[in-house]
Amino acid sequence: xxxxxxxxxxPSPTSRTGRLLRHLDQxxxxxxxxxxxxxxxxxxxxxxxxxxFGHPAITRAAxxxxxxxxxxxxxxxxxAAYSGLLKALLxxxxxxxxxxxxxxxxxxxxxxxxxxxxxxxxRPVLASMGPAHITPGWFTLDKDITVRDDGTLTVAPGxxxxxxQVTDQFSAALxxxxxxxxxxx
Length: 185
Hints:
With 185 residues, the protein is an alpha/beta fold. 38% of the residues lie in helices and 23% in strands.
């Protein structure tokens, strides 16, 4: 199976975006993939803001992109675009950091007014980095993601089904098994 880098572009430690990604990581792992999580917010801010290409944390992040066969990119939508934190990391990666890779773009936000942010803001940047394939992405409304006090995550039924579908399409594009029952997601 494939090695997948699962990247959260959220600046918040309690992010619904990050929690949603980690939830989907479990499904991808159950399908036989090795999933490596990367929360961009854990990278040194000075390295990101000062464009320190040689900083050890940035070179390690670039190496994670290089070793991955698939990349899941998750971001909250702010002002009709992906997060500035994610942009800072993408700007520090080699121009063709996604060459030969399959990419799944995901976004979360508070309003359906931002639903096209994946296609009009994020997808063009990802495409410029040379991926072999960008699978259909999905935008999930914040109100459809519930995090309980015990940390478990629930996604509203309609969104949950759509997320499982795009995740399984991504897995299939990587050669993964997609026969798990919806109940396992």
